[in-house]
Design goal:
globular, 276 residues, mainly beta
């Protein structure tokens, strides 16, 4: 039976995340996942697509604080609980959300390291960002993710991709939330409904990949892989895919080692190719 082998949390959109063994799931996904976000002077979201150096900012959660770390700067400590701040409208793709400003000290810290004027905002606790209704229920919501609360990838899918590339890329290139072991490579392409610790997940569509996986998270330097190989092996409708987006039906607690129960399968998305 497949098992949950890794859990990754990314508190600030497009900054480095961290790995945990146990973590709660709330209405928006993993607790604190993509709860914060950087925006430019037009209040548009920033990501590694525009600023690869964002990959070099590390995050961790200790007690009641989110801590950001970057080379040459003292750690930045932010409260986990929402505090009074300026409420501003921010944009994530086509969605308008309410963010709470984290204050000038945080803005200065990030602007200095990234050499670009930016602000750090926290998604307001009262803000409800719904998921694309073409793939979700009206009750589904997410934080500042690109569109879905979870991204799931299997270990053997990465192993197969690495063999095809003849490169040892790490899973953190692909920024999954949930990693599954003990299943065939790309088995997740056929999963439609699964459960982990009685939390039911729906997998409505595969994840199309942008240039972020080409950015080395240790150096912030971009390269050509894995997009070159994905373009050869995993192209569908003029996009390349790796991993599956997921939605959840209840809150709960996830732990590494929990079994992944497959309740419903369907045709592979993307469709199986001759090189698969």
């Amino acid at each position: 039976m497949p098992v949950l082998s890794q859990i990754h949390v990314y508190p600030v959109k497009s900054l480095a995340g961290f790995q945990v063994n146990v973590w709660p799931v709330d209405q928006r996904g993993l607790q604190y996942d993509r709860k914060w976000m950087l925006v430019d002077t037009d209040r548009q979201f920033l990501s590694q697509r525009r600023l690869p150096k964002m990959a070099l900012i590390k995050t961790r959660i200790e007690s009641d604080a989110l801590i950001l770390s970057a080379s040459g700067q003292a750690d930045l400590r932010l409260p986990l609980l929402e505090v009074a701040g300026e409420a501003i409208e921010v944009t994530v793709w086509d969605d308008r959300c309410i963010g709470i400003g984290c204050g000038p000290a945080a803005d200065e810290w990030l602007s200095r390291f990234l050499d670009r004027d930016c602000r750090l905002v926290r998604q307001a606790d009262v803000d409800v960002r719904k998921v694309d209704p073409d793939y979700a229920f009206d009750t589904d919501q997410t934080g500042f993710s690109d569109g879905f609360p979870f991204l799931l990838v299997s270990e053997n899918s990465l192993n197969a991709l690495n063999m095809a590339m003849q490169l040892p890329l790490d899973m953190n290139r692909f920024r999954p939330n949930l990693v599954v072991a003990e299943c065939d490579s790309y088995a997740e392409d056929t999963w439609r409904r699964i459960s982990i610790n009685d939390i039911v997940f729906r997998l409505p569509k595969p994840c199309s990949r942008c240039a972020i996986p080409t950015i080395d998270p240790e150096t912030a330097r971009p390269g050509k892989e894995p997009l070159t190989t994905l373009n050869r092996l995993r192209k569908w409708n003029n996009k390349v895919y790796f991993g599956q987006n997921a939605l959840h039906d209840r809150t709960g607690l996830l732990s590494v080692g929990q079994p992944v129960v497959i309740h419903e399968t369907g045709s592979a998305q993307p469709p199986l190719g001759k090189d698969r």
